Amino acid sequence: MSHTSPKALRVIQALFTLALTLLGLLLVTFALSALSPVDRVLQIVGDHASQSTYDQVRHQLGLDQPLPVQFWRYLVNLAHGDLGIASATGQPVLHDLLAVFPATLELATLALIVGAALGVAAGVLCARYAGTPWDLAVRTFTLLGNSVPIFWLGLLMLALFYARLQWSAGPGRLDDLYQYTVTPHTGFALIDTWLSGDMAAFKNAASHLVLPVLLLAYYALASITRLTRSACLSEMNKEYILLARAKGASEMTILLRHVLPNIRGTLLTVIALAWTSMLEGAVLTETVFSWPGIGRYLTTALFAGDTTAIMGGTLLIGVCFVVINNLTDMLVRLTDPRVR
């Protein structure tokens, strides 16, 4: 019992912290909606509706109640999966989010896999050959990744690889030929086209993913490379590394067998932050490539002044951010005895 009680206490504490964070997120999201200058009632009834119609709709929405009552009603509706009706689409916000979020998740996850794999490898090589022309070239390349506007680079990639060279497919997730022939079982284009058995549709979906995935992966790679290099160089100045060198271990062996395991907590945190930033920051990429994800959905809702859709999308992204960060902290504790 004495061995399990502290663990159970830590689990309860972590769950309580997660619940408190999510409640704070809900409160902030609700406050932003309540303070929005956009009149939700006017969006529904229009500018020429009578005062009685305006008051009736306002009462139906519960906007004539005190803010604490509105917040409680919001929590109750949320517990039943009710995020409201999007004025731009006329559909429940939850239905819209379930339709568009898989596209963003697919794009961000594939970009993370590519960016993390290349970023960690490049960071380790930069640490191994620190101060060499290779190190300078990679650092310059990653610096450009944090400096060049993502929408400009996306347009450039489309103009070069799609319009000029015709090496890849254009905007969207599928060509019109396959758009209505593939049944969206999961919402993930690669999985749905694979399940359909149409290999031409699968190749088409993959070709549409190449440019946006590479673009987002480049920006993830830029930050992951720099932080991996910095963490490796910091670790290589410690005494146990000097002991390994004295025993005759090569620099690459030291990096792979000693340094990388000791910075895995840092790497997990950096990769998780890159993933969450792509989930919430792919707006410009999705707009440039006409990618029907949550970023494009929020952009459309923002221009339409649809506060209900904006509130639901912001809440979904916030929940993803909180959950991924908490899962990463738990994973770091499980894999790193020093943290435990």
UniProtKB/TrEMBL annotation:
Lipid bilayer topology: Multi-pass membrane protein
Compartment(s): Cell inner membrane; Cell membrane
Domain of life (superkingdom): Bacteria
TM region positions: 107-131, 143-163, 209-228, 267-289, 309-328
UniProt key word Transport: yes
A single GO molecular function term of this UniProt record: dipeptide transmembrane transporter activity
Residue intervals of the ABC transmembrane type-1 domain: 101-332
InterPro entries reported for this sequence: BPD_transp_1_N, MetI-like, MetI-like_sf
Primary localization: membrane
Keyword set includes Transport: yes
Family named by the database record: Belongs to the binding-protein-dependent transport system permease family.
Gene3D superfamilies, alphabetized: MetI-like
Pfam families registered for this protein in UniProt: BPD_transp_1, BPD_transp_1_N
PANTHER family: D,D-DIPEPTIDE TRANSPORT SYSTEM PERMEASE PROTEIN DDPB-RELATED, DIPEPTIDE TRANSPORT SYSTEM PERMEASE PROTEIN DPPB-RELATED
Record-level GO cellular component terms: plasma membrane
Record keywords, A-Z: Cell inner membrane, Cell membrane, Membrane, Transmembrane, Transmembrane helix, Transport
Protein name: Binding-protein-dependent transport systems inner membrane component
